[in-house]
Amino acid sequence: MRRIIKNRQIIEDYWQHLTDDGELPANPVIVSLARWKQQRSVLLERGEPVGVRLPNTINPAELAEDLPKLAVVALEFPKFADGRAYSQARLLRERYGYRGEIRAVGDVLRDQVFFMARGGFDVFELREDRSLEDALEAFGEFSESYQPAADQPLPLYRRGR
């Protein structure tokens, strides 16, 4: 079983990423947006939590109506220099009020996790060649954040510090 960082802790991941032609197992799954659109009712009738993997080229508005049904939205980072998923996470949290799990998948690096968490991510799937323990330490590198963000809607001056 793969390990991930969730809510700033390393845990075992019980979610399974499915390909578009993979068989549905009897446990929680994360499927592509295309599979979700084709098999929404089948996926929901299973009675298991379901998540959708959203490419960073897709507007989260496409999932807006379905968000209450989804336990996870996995946002893709295809490469380090492509940060469009940061904007998707902020939109999901702030515009659409999504309170489920937002998962960073793909080329997720240690130096990004603190900023991803500020944008609304709460789960991080690092590549196999990356250290979860090292990435976990990144959350403690900044003692305070001045600006408002998804994880702290008030700027520092409004927090009475």
SSE diagram, text form:
Elements: E1 3-6, E2 9-12, E3 16-17, E4 29-32, H1 33-45, E5 50-54, E6 72-77, H2 84-95, E7 101-106, H3 110-119, E8 123-124, H4 132-137
Q: Can you describe this structure?
A:
The chain has four helices and eight strands. It is an alpha/beta fold and 161 residues long. An eight-stranded mixed β-sheet has the order 2-1-8-7-6-5-4-3. Strand 1 (3-6) and strand 2 form a beta hairpin. The longest helix is centred in the N-terminal third of the chain and has 13 residues, at 33-45. The mean pLDDT is 91.
Short structural description:
By secondary structure, this protein is α/β, with parallel strands linked by helices. It contains 4 helices and 8 strands; from the N terminus they run ββββαββαβαβα.
Helical run tally: 4
Note the gap between the termini.
43 Å
Low-confidence stretches: none
Helix share of residues?
Answer: 25-40%
Q: Structural class of the helix and strand makeup?
A: alpha/beta
